[in-house]
């Protein structure tokens, strides 16, 4: 009975996946699909206090540097650039994620809740006096919209 060398098998599978243009293409397409869906969810939520379009524009695919993979090419295999077996290779691996870097993204996702009475905040120029600075603000709770959570739920992912 043949003995399976798990490390060799794992290395061969990993190398085939890294070499596959189809895997890279499908990863790119899936990340773009998630981005489109998130934008659709946000647009379908109807009137909300952030109608400027800046939040929707901030939803992007983020290609993150994962690590520099170094190792030997397994016996009987060729490296990604045609290296011979036994030689050392070095390649960069990436991870895809979709996110928003908008300053109010957290407030949009989780809401703001009620304001505390008597506490002021920076609210820009005062309507009556025109002075800039701290003053009492109206009670303006913002409901939670959860566009990212709805996208994650649709694609069975994690946040």
Features:
single chain; alpha+beta; two-stranded antiparallel sheet; 5 helices; 24% strand
Topology:
Blueprint: H1 6-19, H2 21-44, H3 54-58, E1 59-72, E2 88-100, H4 105-110, E3 120-125, E4 132-136, H5 147-155
Antiparallel strand pairs: 1-2, 3-4
Helix pairs in contact: 2-5
How would you sum up this structure, described in words?
A two-stranded antiparallel ribbon has the order 1-2. The chain has one domain. The protein has helices at residues 6-19, 21-44, 54-58, 105-110, 147-155, and strands spanning 59-72, 88-100, 120-125, 132-136. With 159 residues, the protein is an alpha+beta fold. The mean pLDDT is 76.
What count of domains describes the coordinates?
A: 1
What oligomeric state do the depicted chains represent?
single chain
Low-confidence stretches: none
What is the C-alpha radius of gyration, as a whole number of Å? 25 Å
Number of helices: 5
| Mean pLDDT, all residues | 76
Strand content: 15-25%
Give me the strand/helix succession: HHHEEHEEH
User: What is the general shape?
Assistant: elongated
Q: Strand count, sense and closure of the main sheet? A: 2 strands, antiparallel
Q: Helix/strand/pairing class, anyone?
A: alpha+beta
- Calculate the terminal CA-CA distance, rounded to whole Å: 44 Å
Q: Count the beta strands.
A: 4
Question: Biggest sheet, strands in spatial order?
Answer: 1-2
Residues in helices, as a percent range? 25-40%
In short:
With 159 residues, this protein is α+β, with helices and mostly antiparallel strands.
């Amino acid at each position: 009975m043949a003995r399976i060398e798990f490390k060799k098998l794992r290395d061969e599978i990993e190398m085939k996946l890294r070499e596959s243009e189809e895997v890279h293409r499908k990863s790119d397409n899936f990340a773009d699909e998630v981005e489109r869906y998130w934008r659709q969810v946000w647009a379908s939520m109807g009137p909300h206090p952030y109608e400027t379009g800046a939040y929707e524009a901030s939803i992007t695919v983020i290609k993150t540097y994962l690590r520099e993979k170094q190792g030997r090419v397994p016996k009987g295999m060729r490296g990604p650039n045609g290296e011979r077996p036994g030689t050392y290779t070095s390649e960069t691996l990436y991870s895809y994620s979709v996110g928003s870097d908008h300053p109010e993204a957290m407030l949009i996702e989780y809401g703001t809740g009620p304001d505390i009475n008597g506490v002021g905040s920076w609210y820009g120029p005062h309507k009556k006096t025109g002075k800039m600075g701290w003053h009492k603000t109206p009670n303006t709770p913002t409901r939670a919209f959860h566009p990212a959570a709805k996208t994650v739920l649709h694609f069975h992912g994690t946040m």
